[in-house]
UniProtKB/TrEMBL annotation, chains A, B:
This is Flavin-nucleotide-binding protein. Pfam families: Pyridox_ox_2 (PF12900). It comes from Actinophytocola xanthii. PANTHER family: 5-NITROIMIDAZOLE ANTIBIOTICS RESISTANCE PROTEIN, NIMA-FAMILY-RELATED PROTEIN-RELATED, FLAVIN-NUCLEOTIDE-BINDING PROTEIN. InterPro entries: Pyridox_Oxase-rel, Split_barrel_FMN-bd. It comes from the Bacteria. Residues 1-20, 197-223 are annotated as: Disordered.
Length: 223, 223
């Protein structure tokens, strides 16, 4: 267990009791998430936040995009922030002020570097594919040379990271505890529906098990 | 229907067929989301992306935070980017390159302004509460003067915004259509679980209907 680097940026200033600096917790949040939000500073100096796919290999995060996308061009070599958030429930308090949410989040800071080596890029794409659509690599057709060239992959070291996790009932003012007001948590669940086949599917093509039996996204306390 | 402002930043460069410049679509995405990702540029010039609660009133978005939070201090008067993303499913293609996700996203750009007027702030907090925990305002205790002072609310005009929506089966290379490979969509559903009461609840306090019968988050095509 390596503690997360408590550098100035990644030190959680608010809700300190909710933060954790445990590397296993960081990995668990990243592995439980499906998409991330990539933040970068555009040429004109304003922040831009875009949702995108990602995958983790050890302490490297790979973020996926098109070579034509402004986001990955701007992020190459520049400072980026990648945030993964899982909303786990709504926290109803006896007081509006203490209403909150239960969640898990990871906020990563660093300089992104786009991969140029073909093999490295292919390996990173496999990591991203294994994260977003596990079982697909080796089942679907692998990227052609042209497709690989059209894909940009950004690598980010998980050196500077902060994890925040909130679980459990609301915090309350002692004076509010006598109120006849309901308080508690409404959990939010994420689950896969039934696979919807592509209309042009060849007749008799069965749903593969990696789709049919894909486990539901990992909830709080199970990761 | 006002088309969204197609300024340089909010023009969708990638996946043009997936973008829409319809104000009703923007409102629908914002109303279906639960939390947003707020991006700003920190003092040292690097981007920061934090998850937070929000609410919409007409063409104003309110974002919620603590007066002690660095995010809202940095965002006040500065350029911010607020992104709301709903992941609706995983798109399995016959080729790894065309694997994708179905999603709805709204990306908003502008200068944030923190509210100072007490009544304005209270009204904005109600908008945020009605979004995240509808039914709570008027049921739970309203913010005290002290609590209101400890809460920061950022207002952002929905002037510069881009909406992207992807639905349906994968796009494929024509040559891949003859492959005996399954392709289609695995939908991701979000639903509320059973309310978990606070352990310190006064005995006999019933779950209010705004919690018990809260409708599940709005899926694609229903907003």
């Amino acid at each position: 267990m390596h503690p997360l680097s408590p550098t100035e940026r990644s030190t959680v200033r608010r809700g300190k009791t909710r933060s954790t600096s445990d590397r296993a917790a960081l990995h668990a949040v990243l592995d439980a998430g499906l998409i991330c939000h990539l933040g970068f500073v555009a040429e004109h100096g304003a922040p831009v936040v875009v949702p995108t796919g990602y995958g983790r290999d050890g302490d490297t995060l790979y973020v996926h995009g098109s070579t034509g996308a402004a986001s990955l061009r701007a992020a190459d070599g520049g400072e980026v922030c990648v945030t993964v958030t899982l909303l786990d429930g709504i926290v109803y308090s006896r007081a509006v002020f203490h209403c909150s949410v239960n969640y898990r989040s990871a906020v990563l800071h660093g300089r992104g570097a786009t991969l140029t080596d073909r093999d490295e890029k292919l390996a990173a794409l496999r990591v991203i594919t294994d994260h977003l659509a596990p079982g697909t690599w080796g089942y679907a057709r692998e990227p052609s040379r042209r497709e690989l060239a059209a894909t940009a992959v950004l690598a980010l070291d998980l050196t500077e990271a902060a994890v925040k996790i909130r679980t459990g009932p609301p915090g309350e003012e002692p004076a509010d505890l006598t109120r006849p007001t309901w308080a508690g948590v409404l959990p939010l669940h994420r689950s896969w529906g039934s696979p919807v086949p592509c209309p042009e599917l060849r007749p008799g093509t069965a749903v593969p098990s990696h789709v049919e039996t894909r486990p539901d996204p990992v909830g709080p306390g199970r990761g």
